[in-house]
Amino acid sequence: MEQRSRVYPKKTLGQHFLKDKSIARRIADSLTGSGYNTVLEIGPGMGVLTGYLLERGFNDFHVIEIDNESVHYIRENFPELKNIITGDFLSLEIDKYFSDKIAIIGNFPYNISTQIFFKVLKHREKVVEIAGMLQKEVAERICAEPGSKTYGILSVLLQAFYTTEYLFTVSEHVFSPPPKVKSGVIRLVRNDVRKLECDEALFFRVVKACFNQRRKTLRNSVRAAFELKRDDYHEFGLRPEQLSVDQFVKLTRWIDENRIISE
After folding, report:
1. For 62, phi and psi rounded to 5 degrees?
2. Where does the pLDDT of residue 8 fall: very low under 50, low under 70, confident under 90, or very high at 90 and above?
3. What domains lie within the chain, and their CATH numbers?
């Protein structure tokens, strides 16, 4: 069978194929390889990362690809790759498909990168590491520290359970077609937090409520979202981007003790 020479990028899937092999190798090498035997690559496209990941010799390597043309290309050009999942990562039932800890890697499509990380967050006990490339703005937001203008919901929620690291920036000129923005490569490694010292569902609500009105002080954003018995929390004069994960945990505990729950 004649091998396909290329896959044509599809705008509807947010495909921008990386052409620089040295950058692809750096991304593949960004996985630590510690704490897991299974690796899942999201959206291999024409396999620029796939080849280097195969070279690393992971015991259990999978790819998931929604584009049928890419699936055929991968099958023909990487015959040694046996675990090819055809479908949408956002619909993949991770807990059913994988029985053990996994790492996730990929050149993530810009149009679903945030959704990918929220899904990882839901499966944080299974996904112990994630590395890859995404829009620079989103990559910086995930890794931002308190006090930064880019620090927000995604920063707090992910940093509660992962150690985040911004690795390097990638020019838009090394893609086909080139995107309109630069990209950033990041790595997240699961930390030791198994359970937050507060109601976790409420923690998510509090963080989202605060950043949904990020220009307001915590007093105003919290009062807009919760009915409270008191109004004297000592950090109510701060804005949400000034709070660390630990401070959001403490705020959540205080709200839990002082909110009025309607019958």
Report:
1. -125, 155
2. low
3. 11-190 (3.40.50.150), 200-258 (1.10.8)
